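EI: anyone free to look at a 213-residue chain?
SC: sure, send it
EI:
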Amino acid sequence: ILAEKYQLYRHSLTSIPGMGVDFSRFDIAETKSGLRLRYGIAQQTVVFVFAGEFSSRKNQQQLIAAFSRVSKQMPQAKLILAGEGALLDACKAQVQQLEMRDRILFPGQVTDMPALYHCSDVCVSASKIEGLPFNIMEAMYCNLPCIASNIKGHADLIKRGKTGYLYETEIELAAYMVQLYKHVDLRQQMGQTAHHAVQQYGVDVVQPQVMQV
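SC: here you go
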């Protein structure tokens, strides 16, 4: 849009769907129930997941606050926040203060993200700024509906009510968490739609377009 508005090109303008994501590494044979058994996650647990650097930009504090706000309405839910960073200790302190240590987990830097996504049920993100976020695309490919802040990047990927939800406030984020917690059929339907919708960002689709340009 900006390139067109300010004519930031010489002859023609070409749009490509991002850098391309190698989704092949997220095709794993092990089942969700098998993975949960291996990692000690109860089958009935509803897992909300976010992976990213602990920073002000990624805004994990809002995810923690929203989850805590409605935790009593989701007695079998857990929030997994993977990654490391400058605000990790602050987030752990926030969880301890809220008495959520058994509900909000910090596994650190996760090397096997495909397994974690396939163990999970919903991807969440409270980022304040994003480009075209790989973590959201990877989660969508793994059949996860996404609840994310309404910013560019998230809005480019997530279609409201079809592949997930975009929220404006912490209260809205919490409400969407409860909705997807309670409705397993909705989670599965959105997850399947998300898997198909994100295919256009695969490296096998994007690379030929880049090479043609």
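EI: The chain is about 40% helix and 15% strand.
SC: 👍
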